[in-house]
Amino acid sequence: MHTNPHVNPVIVASENGRAGATVAMELLRRGGCAIDAAELAARVTEDDPQEHSVGFSGLPNLLGQVELDASLMNGRTLETGAVAGVQDYGNVISLARAVMDELPHVLLVGRGAERFAGEMGQKPADQRTFASLDFWRTRFTETGLELTGAELRHIVTRLTLPLHLEDRVPHGTVNYLVRDAHGDLASAVSTSGHAWKYPGRVGDSPIIGAGNYCDNRYGAVACTGTGELAIRVSTARSLILYLKMGMSLEEAGQECLAEIVQLKPRVGQYMNFVAMTPDGQHRGFSTMAGKKYLYYTGEMAEPSLGERETRR
Question: Residue 149's domain spans which residues?
């Protein structure tokens, strides 16, 4: 997996990645590496109190708890780290990085991930101070539902219907694909997951091959949207394999869209993904019309938005 020195840095992201991409590009212009830039970009988004699909400001589960997932992948080495179902610790992308760097594992979940966060010096935070709980209370008021000891499975479907959610969380999750000046690739995904989910639900974001995959030889892919769809057809790894087989980026993306459509998503379910090849080509794809993605090259003064392609 040899790299070419002195190529133009590129960052491709979901539409909510502007602030993170801006900070990460500064690092790349100073000679920083792709994996550091991807982690930094995701941390910026995690720390944004106005971002309600990532970090502690993300929307909670049925019980009002914010559970965070993240993954990070190094395209040069194919090393990766991921965490899922993390409460009390906000910068889960750095926790995923620590899993990759410090442990012989790929994925930690729940209490084990939280224990590891403490060992790595991360400081816990009180989730009750975050605005996400206000969204939770409002959601129950809208639906007229109450938590009265009933089994959660009887109300989770009603609460996850798309009642106003499209307006509130237009992006859902954050994706970053990065190419540095040496041609190395990295990918990062961070999320608070499906709003009002059943406690313990994990989507595609921390699942390598479903919501995130990166390989210097062929490209990088990351997903947002209804993670169950990407898990069922391994969207991220599939697109990379299509590139390996010789498809163009557009052909590979269209094939992945076709696979998702064949699942017959329910009302309110959708999938977005961004992809980049080693030479810096990039595209965004979505099962919904009108969606955008962000891209930023070292030659640009600021990030720009592009239209995501839909199924043809």
Answer: 10-306
Q: Which residues in the chain land under pLDDT 50?
A: 1-3, 163-171
Residue 159's H or E segment, with its range, is: helix 156-159
State yes or no: is 3 an active-site residue: no
Number of independent structural domains in the chain? 1
Instruction: Classify residue 81: in a domain, yes or no.
Output: yes
312 within a domain of the structure (yes/no): no
Of the candidates 132, 120, 214, 202, which has an alpha carbon nearest to the alpha carbon of residue 175?
A: 214
Residue 311 lies in a domain: no
Per annotation, catalytic residue among 45, 160, 173, 224: 173
What is the Cα 113 distance to its own chain's centre? 18
Amino acid 150: pLDDT: 58
Token duo for residue 298 = 């070292």
Q: What is the pTM of this model?
A: 0.91
Q: What angle do CA 14, 18, 24 make, to 5 degrees?
A: 100
How far apart CA 102 and CA 199 sit, in angstroms, is 28
Say which CATH number the domain at 261 has.
3.60.20.30
pLDDT in tens, 126-155: 655 556 667 666 766 665 555 555 566 666
